[in-house]
Amino acid sequence: MGENGIWLPNASSSLAGEVDSLFWFVFWVSTIIFAMVVLAKLYFVFKYKRKSESEVPQPVHESKLLEATWIVVPTILVLIVFTWGFDVFVKLSSAPPDAYQITVRGKQWVWEYEYAEGVVTAQDLYVPAGRPVKLLMSSVDVLHSFYVPEFRIKHDVLPNRYTTVWFEANEPGEYQIYCTEYCGTAHSGMLGKVIALREDDFQAWIIEQSQDMPPAELGAQVYNVQCSVCHAIDGSRKIGPPLNGLFGTERAFTDGSTATADESYIRDSILNPGSKIVEGYPPAMPNGFGTLSAKQLDGLVAYIKTLE
Amino acid sequence: MSVNYLNHDKSIKSWIYTLDHKRIGIMYMVAVSLAFLAGGILALLVRTELIAPGETIMAADTYNQSFTLHAVLMIFAFIIPAVPAVMGNFVLPIQLGAKDVAFPRLNLASFYIYLAGAAIALTALVVGRVDGGWTFYTPYSARVGDGILFITAGVFVMGFSSILTGLNFIVTIHKMRAPGLTWNRLPLFIWSIYATSIVQVLATPVIGITMVLLFLERLLGIGIFDPALGGDPVLFQHFFWFYSHPAVYIMILPAFGIVSDLMGTFSRQQVSGYKFVALSSVAIAFLGFLVWGHHMFVSGQSAVSSIVFSLITYLIGIPTGVKVINWVQTMYKGSVWLQTPMLYALMFLFTFSIGGFTGVMLGVLAIDVHLHDTYFVVAHFHYVMMGGNVIAALGGLHYWWPKMTGKMFNETLGRIAAVLVFIGFNTTFFPQFIMGAQGMPRRYYDYLPEFTNLHVLSTLGSYILGVGLFLIMFYLIHSLFRGKKAGPNPWGALTLEWTHTTTPPHPHNFEETPIVTRGPYDYHLAPELFGGDGASGDGHKHEADISVADSGASV
User: Fold this and answer.
1) Which domain does A79 fall in, by range?
2) Which residues in B473-483 are b (16+ Cβ under 10 Å) and which e?
3) Is residue A116 part of a domain?
4) What is the pLDDT of residues B325-340, one digit of tens each?
5) pTM, 2 dp
6) Do A173 and A270 belong to one domain?
7) Mutation choice for B interface testing from A15, A22, A37 by most B CBs within 10 A
8) What is the ipTM score, two decimals?
9) Are the Cβ atoms of A44 and B353 closer than 8 angstroms?
């Protein structure tokens, strides 16, 4: 496993180290007490193992002092742990006021990001390293949860209100994002990376993203981050049908009807996935793709036309 | 053979209409064992799918439904009724010196309501998808098809069974104790069932109401939990955990009772801190209602609530920890007899302690942010539920098996199976702590390649555990036909089911009402019972007559 031993992933955010100190404190105190209990247990088992058929143990007078110790010592320990956990929790919950804010939308089964500069991307979250970043999160469908283990942050993403997390990546690098609230068929495919860049690289990335690109190229980009969880382009079957060689063919649907896959059909299938279900597939596609911009949608249609 | 509750009338009708708490207990045992078997097979399928990343034996949707059904069966159809309804029914009235529970007809009704609930829940399999996990979080659960309606209806109906059983036990404990059986002389198993019953009666209506609201929303489109209709999904989580956290105590408190009785009997020593162990169970039952929010630290509830819930969680943690120390202390200057039931009690102290300590870890706000909804929680939950409840229940099953059936199981196979269960259980679930701390989320069909080794280890462990459990099933059933006849008190225990009844008990339990003159664990006052009536085949003086090789040959 990582350089942080087998128990924890690398500590890559400004607060991860503090969470880890607390983790190790609880871990070692627990391990020591647990070991003492188990050793006492084994000692008693062997020491007082039944030896004869006639020994009659006499009742043991209970020591009040000992009983009090078992209550007082753990109480002190857990109060320390509670206060410490509370302190770090408050830090994890309070984003610095100057944090760089990014809007996050969770939808089945992709993360979508919108930057103040107008850039909209998905799956991988580009952020500046060494600067606090605050995510303003909501969901377009069911519950999701945004989790980056190396930053020790997690928060549920809800359809009816905003929730936030914040972090400051220590170093440029790539850090795994998971969805940790069960959200359906491809829940385990709702992944991404936080890509932390040096400040100037990040600014360059924002500018590059703001420039127009040819529709099919934009479409390819959208496909990679939004559609590839469920649709292949090499003819193989994933959760949904493959997209290559699709344009212009005759499609058969579960209700017995057929249609030619033209531009309108593709657009309609993205926006109203439940309206026509291709034969042999479950009606698994979520309704969350209305969040695509008109430009992205046109790009996607153009891209799918090029796939053979 | 003398008249007992099994042989006095052997007709099928006499079982279907029986009002005998012992027969009802046995019928519950058959039913919950089937649920455990089905849930266990699903668990093995889930673990097999996870032996490698990507698709192994089933598609994503099948996997998602498998883990959901595994949990629903294990929690609602197995763990919640297992100890109270099986051992509570069989043992509790006899330990009280009563002829039956207070309301025998209600008791039989509880059983059929349970069966009806389970049948309704299983209809879901025929009708459609059972998806969303046992937590049924909205809005997902409200959108995945009609299967979930049947599951929730089934849980709703099974809830009534739970409430009626709890009510029955509370009244029985208050009104039907034998002369001399004061509250201070109650076996700790009774105390724990008493605490459990309080929770069953007070908490179960909440899940019932929640399921009704879910139903109304789904059928009539009234916005309660679904934001698309103006509802709030976090409200559902509050309702759900308001029941399901106390429900965790429905699952674990009876285990405390069994372990207390086992530690006392097999150490031949008074259970250390009797009053503390007894009353803290009741205190835990009440405090259990005030900590539901610790499941929701990162859900969107206010930070202030999270802080309060974290603090109260520790109030429960401390008495629970003290109980473990009390159980260990019980062996001090005792005479520890390592028969199969005691092996499970000792195993419980080990696995449940790990479950407890990792629970403390999850109660720490900042650490829970990292660990919530990962395999760490899955491992913690299984260490408490399986390492706590199921291990203790296995101890209780072996302990009371001779009384229930009149037959001794094979002690050698019992010990082998106990070792397999211990190794299998820890190999299955300990790696999950590490995976979770590394960031592996729960309810994942697919996973990143770096987790492969630990997943393989966990799956192999589940196979060992499966072998152990099937071995138990085998030798217990075998003992019904070939087992040695058990005497009235093979373990030399002091509670009334051992000292004042025949094996198996008479249909009315006692020839005459017993009078209690000593505490449940005052072994020094009854030296004549030492070692049990070994002559009738307890496997102590001479091992049971079927050796491993013999039973292998007879298969």
Assistant:
1) 1-44+61-94
2) eebbebbeebb
3) yes
4) 999 999 998 989 999 9
5) 0.91
6) no
7) A37
8) 0.89
9) no
